[in-house]
């Protein structure tokens, strides 16, 4: 009889290498820093990265050597949109690809919340949409020029992939509706006043402060850290279970019947939206 092979978590050395084209990871004394990037610079949106993130959250969450996670970006921007990702209209995507996109979009946020059982800190390093990766964290800090902006409605698409959901639960339904319909920018100071972030800092102080907060959290016993995170993240689990699938399905249904396509509308509205992701 052959020996039973034990299946355990993937090692840091393996998954940090596996996702290095999309996420730069470092770890020190139990604190793992994960930075979005493209070619070592600010992250430029791609479907490959969109897919990789959800897998990365699962691997990070299953590694018991990770005790606190910091999520940040690279350079002076959080996200650089690439309208060309919509070069093929969504209604023309193969049926299987549409289904995969639905599940990957769900897992991107679900795995961040349901697979990560340690305290998390989001450090938004500059302008760019899709800040929900950071605002879903237990603590969120940002730079003064951070730019919270949901372009979906202005781009002719229902806002269903997470940005509006997080705003609804942080600032209330009325305020969130206003920002969804108008597409108005929320800068760092306004985000602080609205309760989206807890601190606003100059860019050079952002990551050092994130590490300072992580090291402070590490002073507590392991069980206290893990169980505190469970309590703190529970409202997000409830929100995702209640509303994420509903909102995403509405967005993707509209995209699937959209004959014009997001790229054409972005070209028409490039003065307002070009360089943003929808």
Could you report the average pLDDT, rounded to the nearest whole number?
Answer: 92
Head-to-tail CA distance between termini: 55 Å
Q: CATH H-level name... which superfamily?
A: 2-enoyl-CoA Hydratase, Chain A, domain 1
User: What is the strand arrangement across the widest sheet?
Assistant: 1-2-3-4-5-8
Largest sheet: 6 strands, mixed
Oligomer: single chain
Number of strands: 8
Number of contiguous helices? 11
Pairing-aware structural class of the strands and helices?
A: alpha/beta
Strand content: 5-15%
CATH class descriptor name: Alpha Beta
Pfam family, one: ECH_1
Protein name: Crotonase
GO molecular function: catalytic activity
Describe this structure in words.
This protein is α/β, with parallel strands linked by helices and 278 residues long. The chain has one domain (12-270): 2-enoyl-CoA Hydratase, Chain A, domain 1. Helices cover 48% and strands 12% of the residues. The chain has eleven helices and eight strands. The protein has helices at 12-18, 47-62, 95-114, 132-135, 163-171, 173-182, 188-194, 203-217, 222-256, 262-268, 270-273, and strands at residues 23-28, 31-36, 68-72, 120-124, 139-143, 147-148, 186-187, 199-201. The strands form two sheets. It has a six-stranded mixed sheet with strand order 1-2-3-4-5-8, with helices on both faces. Strands 6-7 form a two-stranded antiparallel ribbon. Strand 3 (68-72), helix 3 and strand 4 (120-124) form a beta-alpha-beta unit. Helix 5 runs antiparallel to helix 6. It starts with 11 loop residues before the first helix and ends in a 5-residue tail after the last helix. Residues 273-278 have low confidence and may be disordered.
